[in-house]
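Input C-alpha cells:
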C-alpha cells in the first residue's frame, strides 16, 4: 500500500469516526431533551415521541458507523504491518523504500 493510499484510508477512518461521534452526541442530546420535556413538562417545538424516535434512529447509526471505522482501522493497521514486513524481508529501511539513501 502506498503512503498516499494509507493517508486517504486514515483520513476516511477519521472522518467516519467524527461522524459517528457527532451522530451519537446528537442522538443523546435528543434523548435528554425528550426526558427533560417529560419530567419538566416544558413547552417544546417537538413532541416527546418525535424526540424519542429521532434519538432511537440516530443512536444505531452512530454505533454502525463507529464499528465500521474500527474495522477500517484494523484493516489499515494490518496493511501497514504487511507492508513493513515486506520491506524488512527485502532488506530495505523506510528511507530506502522511499528512494532516499540509508546511512
Amino acid at each position: 500500500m502506498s503512503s498516499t493510499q494509507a493517508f486517504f484510508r486514515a483520513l476516511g477512518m477519521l472522518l467516519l469516526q467524527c461522524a459517528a461521534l457527532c451522530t451519537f452526541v446528537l442522538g443523546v442530546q435528543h434523548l435528554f431533551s425528550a426526558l427533560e420535556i417529560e419530567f419538566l413538562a416544558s413547552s417544546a417545538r417537538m413532541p416527546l415521541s418525535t424526540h424519542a424516535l429521532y434519538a432511537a434512529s440516530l443512536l444505531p447509526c452512530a454505533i454502525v458507523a463507529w464499528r465500521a471505522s474500527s474495522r477500517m482501522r484494523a484493516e489499515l493497521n494490518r496493511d501497514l504491518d504487511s507492508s513493513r514486513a515486506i520491506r524488512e524481508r527485502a532488506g530495505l529501511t523506510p528511507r530506502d523504500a522511499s528512494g532516499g539513501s540509508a546511512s
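The two ends are 25 Å apart (CA to CA). The CA atoms of residues 30 and 55 lie 5 Å apart.
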